[in-house]
Design a protein that fits this description.
One of its GO terms (molecular function) is ligase activity. The chain contains 18 helices and 28 strands. The chain has 598 residues and is of the alpha/beta class. It has 3 domains: 238 residues, Rossmann fold (3-Layer(aba) Sandwich), CATH 3.40.50.12780; 111 residues, Luciferase, domain 3 (Roll), CATH 2.30.38.10; 124 residues, GMP Synthetase, Chain A, domain 3. The strands form 8 sheets. A 5-stranded mixed β-sheet has the order 11-12-13-14-17. The protein has a 4-stranded mixed β-sheet with strand order 2-1-10-9, with helices on both faces. A 4-stranded parallel β-sheet has the order 4-3-5-6, sandwiched between helices. Helix 7 links the parallel strand 9 and strand 10. Helix 10 packs parallel to helix 12. The longest helix has 18 residues. It is globular, with a radius of gyration of 24 Å. 51% of the residues are buried.
Length: 598
Amino acid sequence: MHQTLTEAVRAGAEQHPDRLAFVYLHEDGRAMRPEELTYAELDRRARLIATRLRQESLGDPSRPVLLLYPPTLDFVTAFLGCFYAGRTAIPAPLPDEPGERLARVSGILRDASVGAVLTLPEHRQGLAAWLAASGEQDVVCLAPEDDGEDTALWFPPQVRADDIAFLQYSSGSTSQPKGVMVTHANLAANQEAIHHAMLTTPGVVTGSWLPLYHDMGLIGMTLHPLWMGGTSVQMSPISFIKQPYRWLRMIHDYRVEGTASPDFGYELCARRTTDEQAEGLDLSSLRVALNGAEPVRAATIRTFTARFAAQGLRPEALFPCYGLAENTLLASAGDTTAPHVELAVDAHLLEQHELRPARHDRASRTLVGCGAPAGSEVLVVDPMTRQALADGQVGEIWLRGPSVARGYWNRPEATDETFRAETADGRTGYLRTGDLGGLVGGELFVTGRIKEMLIHHGRNLYPQDIEQAVQDSGPALRRGGGAVFTVGDEEGDRSHVVVVQEVRPHQQGEHDLPALAASVQTVLSRRFQLPAASVVLVRPGAVRKTTSGKTQRTLMRRLFLDGALSVLHQRLERPVAELVARPAETPEHPAPLAAPGR
């Protein structure tokens, strides 16, 4: 087992220098043009960047290095260059447009006390100006160019297992992003956990469209093949969204063995891949297709496997899993040799935090198992009393093990609360995930997020259940494009459910929107006994997502209350309407709906 990522890449460069480490697929008209990087070349470029970092970044070497790149191989070499220099890296999206992305990166810059920024030459001037405008006069902006300089000046860094390898800024689905401190030991432990869970072999080929600055895309699909001396094939998320078929073509062309996506990616691919595109594809090489980062829907797995069974896709390849940045990545995973596990539970008892088999005469909900613990100890704990719960009871998921990160950067109080949890009977050192779930026969079932649970008239409702029911009720309602939350009235003694839902483009004319909103209210009344829910219909792309595809319900609640949503049509209960600061008025003649933004 390697001790650090640097050791893994250096071993690959020595043992198989001409093997492809990375292939990046660029859009070239309707085709995809590959850019390739061997282990020998990856090692050379990483040494060059490390040398430049040591020479030109003269400040405190303990300050992290912020990586601002488009999703290309330049990002990968810069990330490894930080490892080769013994510097702490921060993967982040390039702030190439105003709005949320710029605000997010600006927040990271301030929170992390960044010492240097790495980027491409064409972005250096703009980023340097941004740094100066932000008052970061002591942050150097570097754009190392490959001018053939001799890399013999490089020397291996002296790092310890508990040194911080990189900061993984959490997605912020329920709060402000925080920098998770991942040590070299954490990364090594989680890579081994992934190896044993996925049964990856030396030389494994993975393929992905996930963002390189997100934990699943970075650790699972980019760093794991390096750990195993394999090859990672990449494309940008935008390339996938434009033509989901490209993901399948990547698997076919490069004989990809492992891939990953949130649930919405599988649904999108199954829905938008035509019969003509699927014809001739061979997906038999795919052993593991991880499904995680958001609730896994049984219907999505069934649809995807049935849709591409004729192309050789094995049902066992769909691999539900559970993980989070605070545990480096993977926390639990299924069995690669067996179909995934489904559990039909009593919906009423689920509201009472119990996982009990469904009865034929009562409403049910089908949960997908996320497998057994992968290198971590898993406890289900009552979040209020901190009592460990028995099998079949729903509580907060707590983790303990070598993959659990050191804590949050520069946030000692949050670190103590989240990473130093103690059970009522005195067991210490647990990570509080903030996720709800339960264990049944050793299988972990994740049911939702504590902060997003809807407590309505004494009932505990899961927002994703309501969102799915709404989107299943008609073709005009965009899958994955909903956010459900509650708001309190001005007296503070009642909560009101609000549904924000995207409408598919060209599906409904303006005169149909009132009827569509009324139909949503009917679904909520019949399925969830919510007769007075407020409904807000918006354009595709209006519902905010994290980099991993999680719905940012807390953010959507704030935008709604601030009147910051551009509304196509809304039906608000009077107490809810009174809470909105600046209601976005419905246009008398709304413009045609635009194409989806993601």
